[in-house]
Each structure stands twice: as C-alpha cells, then as structure tokens.
Amino acid sequence: MDKDESSRLTLGELIRRQRELAELPMRQLATLVGISNPYLSQIERNLREPSDRVLNAIADQLHLSADALLTESSRSQSEGLSAVTKAIREDPDLTNSQRKAVEEMYEAFREVTIARRKRPRNDGPTDDPNDDPNDDRVI
Q1: Strand, coil or helix: what is 66?
Q2: Which stretch of DSSP H or E encloses residue 101?
Q3: Fewest beta carbons within 10 Å, which of 69, 75, 102, 136?
Q4: For 59-105, how does the pLDDT look when each residue is reduced to its tens digit (9 = 90+)?
C-alpha cells in the first residue's frame, strides 16, 4: 500500500488497521470495549458510526486517542471539502460531538443560502421581515 492509499483511510479502516497492528482479534477487542462482535465489524466496515463512548473505549484499548483517530480519518476524507469544514474537523479545541454539531450547523446555513440564491428574485416585499433576498452577506 502506498502513501496515497494509506492517507485515504476511513475511521473504520483506521480502527481495523490499528487492531490488526496490535494483533488483537476482532472478538477480543469487542469484548474489551464492551460491545458485540457484529457491532465492531459494522464499525470497521463503515456501516455504523461509533458513539463517542465506544470510540473512546476502542481508542483506549488500542492505546490511541479518539481525537487522533478522528483527525486522521478527517484528513483522509477532506478532499473536496470547504476550508471551513476542514478547519472544524481539524480543530483540536473541539470535542467530537462539538465538531459534529458545528459542522451540521455550518452545512445547514450553506444549504439555506444556496437554496435562497436559486429562488427567483422577487422585487416586492416578503412576508418575512428578516428575509432579505438581496442579503448574501456572510456573518
């Protein structure tokens, strides 16, 4: 595997790779973490996203930090993302749940703005006094 391929790993792939490097069978890691073997398998195959508690427990058993796992997987998935989203994902001062919340809010704001720009302009007054169709400022 070359460097480019290793830099594109998802969170599940990173967990699997670290588990294999630690020479821990999946069943044993699942038992140590306190989750079922099928659940760990789904996490490693990116079918389910682990909760913060489960991610922290997995990271502890692999002698890593959950933030390191998330940061590494975020870097590999950051191609094509906006600079703001990249900054949110890489900010070491935010917790995992804070990153998710801020990124969701940011994406919601972007979707509203994009939808507003696609609407036909109406020169007349709107029902919403706060909705200024000419206001494309970023706050």
Answers
A1: helix
A2: helix 96-118
A3: 136
A4: 999 998 888 887 777 665 556 678 888 888 788 888 878 888 898 89
